DNA sequence: GGCGCGGGTGCAGACGATTGCGGAAGACTG
DNA sequence: CAGTCTTCCGCAATCGTCTGCACCCGCGCC
C-alpha cells in the first residue's frame, strides 16, 4: 500500500499522485480532474502516506517535544492533554519527557529529542538565569514556553497571569477583614515564584498594607514539605498572621500541616489561599480556596503557538497570559476578631 | 553528519561502517580492527544515526503506543512514567493517547498509531466483551495490557492482584469488628471491577460472612458522582452497614459525600476503604484507607513485557500480578457498637 | 602449483515519498 | 499559420540507512 499503488490505480505517475494529494486545492499544479481521480483511488485503497518516508524526504517529523518537570504533578496532566489535543488537530504528535527538575537530565533529554528530529519544543522547565532555555545550538528549533515565562519575554510563552491572580487573593482576604497577611513564596528562580511574590507586594500596596521583611518566607521548591517548613517559620516570626497566601497549592498543603501542628484551625484562626486549583483540592479539609486558571486551555494555547511558529518561522513572539479567577472555598473565612484588623473594634482577644 | 561522513573518515565504505556500528560485537562480519576504526571515527564526529532513515529501511520505529483512558486520572501519571522510563532504557519512546473511554475514539487513535508505525502497543483500555482488544488487523502488533487484564488471560498483562487486595480490605474491616459490610463495585465490563467484586465475595466468605443481594451496588463508571449514587443506594437499601469497600478511590470519594449527606461520620458511623491509593488521598478528610500497589512498577513491568515481545516475538504470554498492600489511615475504625456485629453484646443502639 | 574455501568489503538497490527540471501538449496572439 | 506562453505531468534524483550479492584475497590442502 504505497503511493505507487495509488498512482497505478489512478493511471498516473507517483509524482503526480503525490502532488495531487498534497495540493492545497486551487494552486494549479495538477488538474482538478487528476486530483479527483487520484483522491478517489487513494480512498478506494485506503491509502495512508508513510510518515517515516515523508519525514526522511522533507526533514520534518511532525513531532513536537514536550518537556515538563514531572508528570505526577497534578498541574500537568490537563496541560498535556491540551497540548496533545491541539497538536493532533494540526497533524502533530507530542513526545513527552520528564526532567524531574534536573538540568543535566534535561540536557540529555533535549539531545534525545534533537536526535529524533522533533520539529519544535514546548518547555515547561525554564528557570531564570539559564538564558539559553533550550541549550546551546537550539536556535533553529522553534520553542514555546508554558506555565513559566522567560525573564525577558524573549521567547513565546503561555502562562497564568500570576500577578493578577495573587492580587485577587489578597483583595479577597482583605475584604474578609484580614490585615496581617503572610506569603509563602515560590522559588525565585522560577517566573511563577517571582511573579507571585511581585503580585503579593503589589496587591498589599493597593490595599494600603505594608509588607514587612517577616511577612514573606521563600520556599526552595514547590513541595508540601517546603510549604510546611516555610509556614512554620512564618508562624514563628509573625505569630499574629490571620491569613497566608501560598504561591501554589502544594505549599498551601504544607501550610495546612503547619497550622494543624500549631493547634490553629483553618479558617477560624488562619485562612489559607493556594494557587493553581489543582484537581482534588476541593476534596481537602477544608476545601482549599485557590486561584484557578484553565490548565487545559493553557496547553492548547501553547500548542497553538508552536503550530504558528512551525507554519511561519519568522512570526513575532507572542506571550499569552491567561486570566486567573479566585475560587472561594472553605479555607478562607472572616479574620478572627482580635487580630489587628481595622474592621471592627475590640472584641474578644484570642488567648495566645 | 551522516554515515557516509563517518565512513569517509574511517576510510571504508558506508556499508561497512553501518555493519561495524550495528555489530553485536564478536559476530565476525567485520574485522575488529575495522570496527575500532569506524567507532573511533563516529565518536570523533559525534555521529548519531538518523532514526528516520533507519526506520524507513528497517520498518521499525522504536516507538510504542501507550493508550490510556485519561491522563487526568491520577492513577496513570506514575504508570506512564514507569513505562516511559523503562522504554527509554530499551531505546524506545512512548506515544501517548487518551481515549476518554470512548471506543470510537480509541479505534481512531489506534489507526493513527498504526499509521505512525508503532512497533507495539500498551493498552490500559481493554474492556471485557471486546475480544479484539486492539481492533481488527492488530494480530501482528505486539500488545501488552496494563492495569486491566484480558478475560481469558490470552494477552500478556500487568495488573494489581485485585482479588487479594480486596480480601485484605475485608479482613481488615472484620478485624475491626465490622460484620455488615457493603461493596460499591466497579464497572463489570472492566477486569478490575469484576475482579474486585469477586475478591469481595471471596473475602467475605473466608470470614464466614454472607453477601446478600443488597450488599453490593455496581457503579457504571469510576467516577465520584457514580460513587455518590451507589453509596446513597447502598445506605438506603442496607441502612445498618458499618463499612463500605469501594472498588476504587474515586468511588470512595463518592462514599464520603453520601455519608456526609446522610449525616453519618466517617469512620465513627461508617468506615470506608478505597483502592489504588491515588496521590493525595492521604490529604483527604479523613485520610483514606486504601489498597496500594506500586503504580510506577506496574508501568515499568508493562514496558518490560513489551520489550521482551519486541525482542522475541514468539515468547509465551505472561500475566503479571502485582502484590497489593493495605494502607490503613483514618477512614477505617472500630465498628460502631450496636451494629449487628458478633463482637460484643447489645450496647447502645444508634438512633436511626 | 592449482583449486577451494571462507572471512571481510564494496556495490548497488531498496525503503516510500517529495520536488526541481524539462517536455509535451493545448491555448492564444499577431 | 507560426510562434509563444501556460498548464499539467513524467523523469529521475534525493533523503540516510540497511542488506543481498558478488568479489577479492589469503590461506590451506591435495
Report on the structure:
Two copies of one chain form a homodimer. Chain A is of the alpha/beta class. Helices cover 40% and strands 15% of the residues of chain A. Chain A contains eleven helices and twelve strands. In chain A, the strands form two sheets. Chain A has a six-stranded parallel sheet, sandwiched between helices. A six-stranded mixed sheet of chain A has the order 7-6-8-9-10-12, with helices on both faces. In chain A, strand 6, helix 8 (191-206) and strand 7 (216-218) form a beta-alpha-beta unit. In chain A, helix 1 (3-10) packs across helix 2 (14-22), helix 1 crosses helix 3 and helix 5 (76-89) runs parallel beside helix 11 (295-311). The longest helix of chain A is centred in the C-terminal third of the chain and has 17 residues, at 295-311. Chain A is elongated and about 90 Å long. The first copy, chain A, starts with a helix and ends in a 25-residue tail after the last strand. The A-B interface holds A 48, 50-53, 55-56, 61, 71-72, 74, 76-78, 80-81, 84, 93-98, 115-117, 253, 256, 279-280, 283-285 and B 48, 50-53, 55-56, 61, 71-72, 74, 76-78, 80-81, 84, 93-98, 115-117, 253, 256, 279-280, 283-285. The first copy, chain A, binds a DNA duplex (30 and 30 nucleotides) through helix 2 and helix 4.
